[in-house]
Amino acid sequence: MKIRNICIALAISVLCTANASAQKRNAAKPKAAKTVVKTVAKPVAKPAKAEPSAENLLYENMLESTQSVLVIDSIVVAKDEFLQYIPLPKECGTIAPYQAKSDGTGYVYVNGFDNKMYYSLIDSTGNASLYTSDKLGFRWTKGTFVNGIDNDNSPNYPFMMPDGITLYFAQKGEGSIGGYDIFVTRYDNENGEFLKSNNIGLPFNSTGNDYMYVVDELDSLGWFVSDRNQPKGKVCVYTFVPSKNRKNLDLSNLSDDEVRQYADLASIRRTWTNKRDYNAAIARLQRLKSNLTTKRNEQSFSFIINDMLTYHSTAEFKSDKARELIMELIQMKERYENDYEQLKALRERYHNAETQEIESLAPTILTAEQDIKALYLQIRNMEKTIRNEEIMFLTK
Predict the structure, then answer these.
(1) Which pLDDT tens digit goes with each residue over 278-288?
(2) CB atoms within 10 A of CB 207
(3) How far apart are CA 182 and CA 205, in angstroms?
């Protein structure tokens, strides 16, 4: 019994010692460190800055040589009506649409002597090319390419200065800061072709379409057309004072923003730095418009009101409405005469043209004939309306 108790005591002692030893081992054994996985964020790639376009670089280069010019007037009009707002005297030549297509309209300029023309033709790809023609006797010669002009850049809107040497026109592509830009070239009599053309710069050109640069040296006035900052289908016709010697804008007292606003013609008032020159130019413009209106009114015409009454001047109309409409009628008849003359020139060229030009001229002539017929009907309807308006006023 005593031995049994001793054995039990020994067994308990062994168990206690084993537990104590286990606890010491566990306490002494270091805990395994937790592995922490750090996620390294990948650097975010910054978007590469877009390289400036050739047009933008050209614009920036032109800023410092922006021309100082007096712009006295501007008017926003429908794109297909801008010629009505350029009061160019006939002594300086005439301008008219020459060829209309879905992808553009070609224009013709005939000088004041009515013996030299420059015009653009639009081909099946929509590209325009400049041609010239001379009148010999009563017939126009076959049109030929204007030598020296790059016809790959769709040149259009020609205007020849009275010197017969300086040609202004508009073109796209190389050397343009956006869309159509106005260029100038001069004829070299020795080589028989025009010299390399130059962009006339700011503020005449912009990142929009700029064209139809026209100068009236008799009245020292000029015009050009631009769709800058305009809604679709609208253009702005600017009236400016041309200068014989180019003078650049004085940048010394202007900020970069002010220079850009001037170059973009954000406000034409910025150009009115000399009130005396401005007032004189405005007076010339008003006198020019008045003279042109007087010439129209002085043109002999007879307008039959009834069997007993015929008017021979617009001043004879008693109805304000009829008087307003008769002025519109005069303009419509002038347009009809001008379009008819252009149609005659087209028909003459058709008879002398080669196969390639004939194919281009045929649909143009057909369209012109249809337009003239429609205009003729409009004139006849307008005459009836005017007659009825005046009779109603007289019989009140």
Answers:
(1) 999 999 999 99
(2) 16
(3) 6
